[in-house]
Amino acid sequence: MIYTVPTKKGLGVEIWGTRDDLEYLYEVVSKFWNDEKFFNVKGYKDKNNLISSFSYEIRKASYGSRLTRNSSHYSFEEIPYLGFKISWVHILFSIATLKYNMRMVESDKGEIAMFLHLEYWIERAMESYDPIGAKKLLPYLDNAVYAGNEYLYLYMRKINATFFEMKGGKNSFRKLAELMRTSIYSTEDYKNLLNFFQSEAKKHNCGIEDLELNDDDKIYEIEW
Fold it and tell me: pLDDT digits over 78-90, tens only?
């Protein structure tokens, strides 16, 4: 069974499952991105960039290349469990993007159930870490993130970097909902970031989709 627990410093969640669980999750996620039929859809390749990093972590975890345990957090029975870490920002954007892409292809009940199951455990991990911060973040598990944004990956990267600069902890977690307002269409934060990207693209004589954010890798080198 796929389940989640919050990371120690509250920067995100650990997603756990057996190898079979993770392989099935990877299979489900793979259906909703990187489909050549939609490469001409504006913003689709940007969403591919976002989902691909999530998908990559699932695949690496299923190989045992990330986190490992001899049993789940909820049982003493010795069954190998595998997992990986992902930030709150990344998982919220990933879920929003996958749900958006689900509109383009037919999905079955098993796939829908998997995403509902994942959402349930993300919500549970939030609430177990800090109910106050979780309450503010719950709208972003619904439809608050504007997944129609054709620059969604850049928005996620920018918000994620800002969140990591806050170093984690409950105070940072409680401020995350305010940072996530940047993902809501038509808010001033959303418009300001778009204006920034437009300015940078003009400065570098390229399209916004071609911009590269110069994240300092050191901000991610902290305890999760």
Answer: 999 999 999 999 9
Q: Which domain holds residue 164?
A: 3-220
The structural domain count of the chain equals 1
pLDDT digits (tens, 9 = 90+) for 104-138: 999 999 999 999 999 999 999 999 999 999 999 99
Alpha-carbon separation of residue 104 from 33, 99, 182 (angstroms)? 10, 10, 25
CA 184 remoteness from chain centre: 16
Tell me the pTM. Answer: 0.95
